[in-house]
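Following up on my earlier message about NAP. Here are the inputs again, as you asked, copied directly from the submission form:
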Amino acid sequence: MNILITGAASGIGRGLALKLARPGVSLQLCDHVADGLMKTARRCDEQGAHAVPTVLDARDRQGMADWIATAAGERLDMAFLCAGITGGLPPEAEDGLVLEREERVREMLDTNLTGTLNTFFPVVNAMRQQKRNDENLRGRICVMASVAGFVCYPGTPSYSASKAALDRFIVANASRLGNSGISLTSVCCGFVDTAMVKQNRFAMPGLVSTEEAVSRILRGTLRQTRRVIFPAWLVLGSRLMDLLPPRLADWYYVTQPSAQPAGMPDF
Ligand SMILES: NC(=O)c1ccc[n+]([C@@H]2O[C@H](COP(=O)([O-])OP(=O)(O)OC[C@H]3O[C@@H](n4cnc5c(N)ncnc54)[C@H](OP(=O)(O)O)[C@@H]3O)[C@@H](O)[C@H]2O)c1
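Thanks, got it. Here's what our run produced:
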């Protein structure tokens, strides 16, 4: 079994690697954070897996293509696309304007959207050349979107936009790629207790542990679920909020601590 994971230095990516690590499993691990990545790889090796860490920025299109062409080897069974960043609003400017910094917005879209596509296409190219297995599959691809992609959340506009685009792209392609033997799963979850949310300065309703998130993501991917959602009540609430006229939804959202300027790090 050969499995590829991006964002493997931390959080959900590392959790998936550790959950999957066992004898007979090769783990192709990538992140731009060398220390964390090596630590994940060491722990996977200790569990009997064969971990191959590669320090790489997901925004490097050619670098990702070259890495995946090698990492796929003779067969790539699964790929988990976890590399991503988040961020909120900066403090109010002197003239009263509250807007994410342009560089941060571009970084968010480059990492979460383009970086994921830089992984997705080479993975599809590798998988399409493989024979179908006894489940009639060539491979599985799981992409980390977010419940934030279901709403126009004023506290994290570019994060919401990047995750909405990812979820739509994956779910919209799931049927046709499924017919070609490549199973696609989009994960739209709420808060997971990882480094990504550690600096949030507000209560996080429905926060789940990394272990629980990893179990749900893995189960959904193995079952070929097109969209994995949790917690269900948060996703349902978000879906309902998005049916409201934007001004009405915004009237509620702007009262939330997480939507305040400097409510979460803007890096
Ligand atoms: N935690 C949540 O509540 C939550 C909820 C819904 C969806 N998600 C999504 O789940 C995924 C994993 O999140 P997580 O909570 O596990 O976060 P995490 O602990 O911060 O792990 C993400 C990893 O990806 C790395 N990364 C960032 N930009 C990269 C790049 N350009 N190239 C390669 N690696 C890069 C991060 O490095 P740095 O530490 O340097 O950023 C980090 O090591 C993300 O896509 C996130 O948006 C998370």
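One observation from looking it over: The beta strands are 2-6, 26-31, 50-55, 78-81, 139-144, 182-189, 227-230. Hope that helps, and feel free to reply on this thread.
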